Amino acid sequence: MAKTPLQMGWEEWLSLPDLGVSAILAKVDTGARTSALHASEITLSGPADAPLVQFTLHPVPDNDAIAIRCETPLLDRREVTSSNGETEQRYVIGTTVAVDGESWPIEITLTDRSTMASRMLLGRQALRDHVTVLPAVRRLQPELNYAAYETLAADAQSRPSLRIAILTREDNYTTQRLVDEGRARGHKVDAIDTTRCYMAINTLAPEIYYDGRKLPRYDVVIPRIGATITPYGAAVLRQFETLGTYCVNGSHGIMASRDKLWAHQILASAGIGMPDTAFAASPKDTTNLIELVGGAPLIVKLLASTQGKGVVLAETRKAAESVISAFRGLKANFLVQHFVREAAGEDIRCLVIGGKVVAAMKRKGAEGDFRSNLHQGGTGEAVKITTQERRMAVKAARSFGLGIAGVDLLRAKDGPKVLEVNSSPGFQGIETVANKNLAELLYREIEARKGRVVGLA
């Protein structure tokens, strides 16, 4: 005789005895295929062919002082799309669910549900053959409570809210500000030298190692990857992305922003105004190349130039031909660009965080230098930007998928032009000029994204 399925409403109490969870209130959702469990501080251990996943479970909403540390075999890594359309890589474990004296095995994914009302979601795969769902009611099964967890309450102040890695090689002003501000806000922040990371690439348990040890599972990575190591830094970042880690700036956006030709193609496809730009490989095209940007004066720019290095102003056609010939002789990849004379050696740096311009400054080149970069001796001052400039900066950062970006604009006769999108903008100059705590603004955006709002110390 077939067993009568349990009846459940849209919300029910249950337990997970294999994980030491005596009571948890779960949302029962037949619209979701996959079950999910709130987990943080996720790490892997054991051999690559039989890895164990360790994680911390906070079963009581709004009380992260109650924590259960779990360890169980890892079954799989799976791409899951949530109800809001976001896709992430999740670890999959097997466990037992128990309801009113009955129990059965289920697969469940580990994810961050800190912003959800329920710390667990029971999807239809876990329900079939065992449960009939009555979606109009709730709590048909016996009531449980959290009393058993009282002895697990720990000092919440001793546990950082987020585990954050800053991927960088430099102990400069920006890195130190990010470390200090993050720790002041209660997060555990590690500054990691990108070049000392190495990777184990496999299907089930890809890992990142650092100085001979396996890195822990980070909630967030803030990449500060130097231009000289862009390809390797992007590879390390892709490994974090494979693990499902939230990266403030993604590998694709960083790679694109560092390649001047690719970057201008992205700006053009997004309909963003920029100085006329041309590129060619053959020396036979030099004359046409110059004409395409309106003739001399013009800018000749290496594709991998940064901080104003590898950027040359050719005042005359003869000078332009000479510079282009020299760059070709060095087998260097470059582009030519219209020189916006009316900008008078000035540009505007807009710092975009989370789709908003949070600070702006006008930069002016040193005496006799058309480049306005602070690294080349330029100076900065406060500036008020127009609505058009603000919208253009936000659109440019969004076109590269960057959570934080420095967007450089020129003020031309026919409107603002985007000169460059920087995926690792420094804070020192603009933070001083704008008189704003930019590190705090970045962490507020991260906390909102991860659902962890932390008060200032």
TrEMBL record:
InterPro entries: Asp_endopeptidase, ATP-grasp, ATP-grasp_RimK-type, ATP_grasp_subdomain_1, Peptidase_aspartic_dom_sf, Rimk_N, Rp_bS6_RimK/Lys_biosynth_LsyX
Obligatory cofactor(s): Mn(2+); Mg(2+)
Cellular-component GO terms for this entry: ribosome
ATP-grasp domain boundaries: 264-447
GO MF annotation list: ligase activity
Keyword Ribosomal protein listed: yes
Keyword set, alphabetical order: ATP-binding, Ligase, Magnesium, Manganese, Metal-binding, Nucleotide-binding, Plasmid, Protein biosynthesis, Ribonucleoprotein, Ribosomal protein
Enzyme class: ligase
EC number: 6.3.2.-
Gene3D superfamilies from the UniProt entry: 3.40.50.20, Acid Proteases, ATP-grasp fold, A domain, ATP-grasp fold, B domain
Protein name: 30S ribosomal protein S6--L-glutamate ligase
Name of the encoding gene: rimK
